Amino acid sequence: MKAYFLFALKRLLQLFAVCFAGISAAFFISHLSPISPVDSIIGRVSGRSTYSPEAIRALRATMTELFGLDVPLWQQYLNFWGRFVTGDLGPSLLAFPTPALRLVMIALPWTFGLLTATIIINWLIGNILGGLAGYYQNNRFLKAFGIVAIGLQPIPHYIVAFLMVILFGFLWPILPISGGFAMNVRVAWTPEFVLSVLHYALLPALSLVLVGIGTWFLGMRALVSNIVTEDYVTYAELAGVKRPTILFAYVIRNAMIPQLTSLAMTLGLIFSGTIIIEQVFSYPGLGTLLVRAVNEGDTTVVLAVSSIAIIAVATAIFIIDLLHPIFDPRVRVE
User: Fold this and answer.
1) How many CB atoms lie within 10 A of CB 197?
2) Exposed, middle or buried, 138 (CB in 10 Å: 0-12/13-18/19+)?
3) pTM of the entire predicted model
4) Within 13 Å of residue 240, how many CA atoms lie on the same side as its CB?
5) What residue segments make up the domains of the chain, in order of their start?
6) Which CATH number fits domain 102-296: 3.10.129.10, 1.10.3720.10, 1.10.510.10, 3.20.20.70?
């Protein structure tokens, strides 16, 4: 128990280090953008009406101070961390003067729900069907599913998303292709709202599942195909152990361990795919918010989204890392 506690403490320190390094990199990259939020605000204001040069200069000075750009970059960096620990990342340019973190918190549940649902579906169904395909290698249905998985797996998520839009939005318009819920539905925890959210999430989720499930299916099938040749599996079969018991207790259970590691390694890629899918379907999540912020030069929102994404992905990997020694006793925790 003490060894596992020290293992968890080391991983926790690594989590803090990864988050600190990632957020610091996001800060400097976002501040190297040639698009200035102050210039964007002044461009918007001056485009709507005519102001005197003195008023423009006063506005520029005020906005520069408000966004903290009136000090050197190193001091902006220190000020950022001072605000970050209190949950204040500054005002947003997209919805000035709404705090950037508030916009992120509004969009986060949409991305979290979509990402969590698709990861669970992909990982569980892909691994279970892949395990069955590796063990029952002559099953016709599983062979056909494998052919489909091989065909879909190399296709990028956004290509599948565009095909879904064409198929279900134009050729056979039975599903919504834009938004997160129907416009005539009130936002509240009611059956009508929940069903509307699920209805609008079908195509984004389907675009992620069609590609993702094939990846886990093929990986699990390859692992099980190798495990079934091991001596302990052959001995269990000769000893008369029932085949379902061999499949789930001996084969799939052992093959799940490397798949758990693969899940931790691919979480960042899954999150980036979700961001692109959200933009294709105008889904009200972090992806849509991030693209809007980049286009508008809203470095505050860009940095807020990046920081939350880094923390979320790193924390998920941290949790999987802690679960790994529990599922695999061979992992040393000293």
Assistant:
1) 16
2) exposed
3) 0.79
4) 0
5) 34-85, 102-296
6) 1.10.3720.10
Q: What is the pLDDT of residues 164-204, one digit of tens each?
A: 888 887 888 888 888 778 777 777 778 888 888 888 888 88
Q: What would the two tokens of residue 266 be? A: 């691919």
And the tokens for 122?
Answer: 């992909």
